[in-house]
C-alpha cells in the first residue's frame, strides 16, 4: 500500500483585507507566503520561528549560509532586533521606509532564529515602503524574514506570475498587488563609525549614502558572505547571458537600452530608473523565448546603473 503525500497548488490572491488575514494565518502557522515589496516579491515567514525560516530555504532551494533580510513594520520593531549606531540612525531616518537594508549587530535578546543570520553576529534589517508587506508584518505580529520569492539563484520576481512560475506547489499563497515599482532588490549597507560599507548596490546609491551621513562609502565585504545577493552566480536565467551586446547574434534574444534594434527594450529613452524597474521582467521574457541565449546591451554604470550591472554580472556568471 502506498501512502499519498499531500499535494497542493499555489493560489494567487488579489491583495485585500480578506487575503491579508488568510496570509497572516499561514504565517502564524509557520508557512511562508509570497508578498510584494516596492523592490521585488518576497517569500515571507516568521523570522523568530526556525521551522518557518527553514521552510523558506526549502521552498527556494537556498544555501543556508546565505543570510536573510528581516522586514519590520516600524523603527521600534527594528530597535528591538539590532543595535543602531549614530550612522545607522542617520540612514534609517533618511531612507526608511524604503529600499535600503542595514546590516547591524544583532541584539542578544532579539528572539530571531539563528537561521536568519546564518551564524553571523549581524542581522540585515529593512523597513519596506510597500503597504502590503507592512500590513502583513502587523497582522502576523512578528518580523518577517523575506528573500526574493523564487528558486534560489534564478531571476528575481517583480510580478505575481513570476512567483507562480518559479514556486508553484512549493508554497500555498501569493498576495498579488501588481508589478513592483523599483524592480531591483534593496541596497544593502553596513554602517560603521568612520565609513559605510556598500554590500549590494540598489536603488539607494553610494552617493546618496555618503550625502546622508557625511561618511565615505567603500564597496565590498570584509567577510565571504555577509548579506544576501553576494553569491558570484545569482539572479540567473536558465540560458547563457552575454553582456555589453550591441546587436543580437544567431540564436540570441537581445535586451536593449536606448534607441537600438532589439527584441525588448529596458528603456527607449535610456532612463536608468525605468530600466531597473523593467530588468527582471525582461529577463523572464527572454528566458521563456525560443532563443537559446540572451544578450544584453551596455548599461551606463552611474547611479542605479551600478546596481543594474551588478545584477547582470551575477546573471551572466
Principal-axis shape equals globular
H-E order: EHEEHEHHEHEHEHEEEHEEEEHEH
Q: Please give the alpha-carbon distance between the first and last residues.
A: 47 Å
* Poorly predicted residue ranges: 1-6
DSSP, total strands:
15
Strand order of the largest sheet: 2-3-7-4-6-5-9-10-11
**Proportion of residues in extended strands:** 15-25%
Portion in helices: 25-40%
Largest sheet: 9 strands, mixed
In terms of quaternary structure, the protein is single chain
Compute the average pLDDT: 92
What does this structure look like?
There is one protein chain. The termini are far apart. With about 325 residues, the protein is of the alpha/beta class. Strands 2-3-7-4-6-5-9-10-11 form a nine-stranded mixed sheet, with helices on both faces. Strands 12-15-13-14 form a four-stranded parallel sheet, with helices on one face. Strands 1-8 form a two-stranded parallel ribbon. The chain contains ten helices and 15 strands.
Compact overview of the structure:
It is built from ten helices and 15 strands. With 317 residues, the chain is α/β, with parallel strands linked by helices. The protein has a nine-stranded mixed sheet with strand order 2-3-7-4-6-5-9-10-11, sandwiched between helices. A four-stranded parallel sheet has the order 12-15-13-14, covered by helices on one side.
